[in-house]
Amino acid sequence: MVSAHPTTPDRLVDARLPDGRRVDMVLRDGRIAAVEPHRSDADAHGDTVIRCGGALVLPALVEGHCHLDKTFLGAPWQPHLSAGSLRERIAHEKVLREQIGVPVAERATALAERMVSLGTGYARSHVDIDPETKLSGLHALLEVRAALRDRIGIQLVAFPQSGILTAPGVADLLDAALADGADLIGGLDPAGFDADVDGHLDVVFGLADRHGAGIDIHLHDGGTLGTSQLRAIADRTRALGLGGKVTVSHAYALGQVDGGELDRTAAALATAGVAIMTNGPAGTMPPVLPLRDHGVSVFAGSDNIRDAWWPYGTGDMLERATIIGLNGGLMSDDDLTLAAAMITDSAATALGLTDYGLHLGSRADLVVVAATGVPEAVASHPERLWVLHGGRVVAAA
Ligand SMILES: [Zn+2]
């Protein structure tokens, strides 16, 4: 149990930094104003301090990929329906979401509030843009984002879940979504779903260029069909000078090809500044360590959290790091530290977050974790003791 805490503390006392130092962290105007060696608890009283007792402090966790509009959280449990194909799954999902009777905003809020309680300070959510829902999901999530802006920062990706070229009117809807407040343009298997790599990427990169938006493309296509599209995305990213603003989510192909094809593709991604997002699926997970060695930025997200795609998911990013570590064979402390970066610094960079981290002057978006070090936090995803957003306590154990 944690004792009563101030809403806006001016100091975290005896917090353990990732490098092991025990410090007092002075907070002012929602930022980190000083980091001093911890000397004694004797003068750390009053109702404006949080006593961490040597617990680990991390910068806010970053959810790099979720679907707030899809979750069934906030609604009664929904038994999972099996599907024989991607198109059948998408069709099932549309029926289920019609039947569920709980509005998008209510379900998305339930999930976002759970994320806050687990120490997530920033989330990138894709939102379906298709001929049926049009912009309704986006508009619901724009309202959720505004309502929760003091607790969590939310980026929205206009996501063509039903394709672009094969779904009439979607290209125009994506254009409208970016005009209405979506931050990024999404994509979906240019070859495997839309059967026209150049046509699909023409729309995605054209809209990104026109709106000054980032890009985040779902790519499930496997083997060399997938890696050839990764290199096509890297080529276009370089040509348009979009390095650092482009992500490919999943990229299963990277976990399925031989060494030469992996090296060639990883080099193209690193040179272009294309990041890879993984949720850590067994068997098809991109190989984190070789990609890191090539200089490719790899970060993590939950993807689906209790929705029509699968019944699993908690929204806990430390648990996600555990899953990635297990499925990726990450064992040493260095490996576990890399897994932690995938839900903190690397994800923050991929999301373009500024003022992020534990540095002087950074925003005080922090989570105090019941662990004595980063590897332990990844291995055991322990309790979140306090969560701060902009210097304000937004959750406590
Ligand atoms: Zn997804």
Question: What does this molecule look like?
Answer:
- The protein has 397 residues and is of the alpha/beta class.
- The chain has two domains: 11-60 and 357-396, Roll (Urease, subunit C, domain 1); 61-350, Metal-dependent hydrolases (TIM Barrel).
- Helices cover 35% and strands 22% of the residues.
- The chain contains twelve helices and 16 strands.
- The chain has helices at residues 86-99, 104-117, 136-147, 170-180, 197-211, 223-239, 259-272, 288-294, 317-327, 333-342, 345-350, 374-380, and strands at residues 11-16, 22-28, 31-37, 49-51, 56-59, 61-66, 120-128, 153-159, 184-188, 214-219, 246-250, 274-278, 298-300, 366-369, 384-389, 392-396.
- The strands form three sheets. It has an eight-stranded parallel beta sheet. A four-stranded mixed beta sheet has the order 3-2-1-4, with no helix packed on it. A four-stranded antiparallel beta sheet has the order 5-14-15-16, with no helix packed on it.
- Helix 7 (259-272) links the parallel strand 11 (246-250) and strand 12.
- Helix 9 (317-327) crosses helix 12.
- The longest helix is centred in the middle third of the chain and has 17 residues, at 223-239.
- The radius of gyration is 21 Å and the shape is globular.
- It starts with 10 loop residues before the first strand and ends with a strand.
- The mean pLDDT is 95.
- Bound molecules: zinc ion (ZN).
- Zinc ion is lined by residues 65, 67, 126, 218, 249, 303.
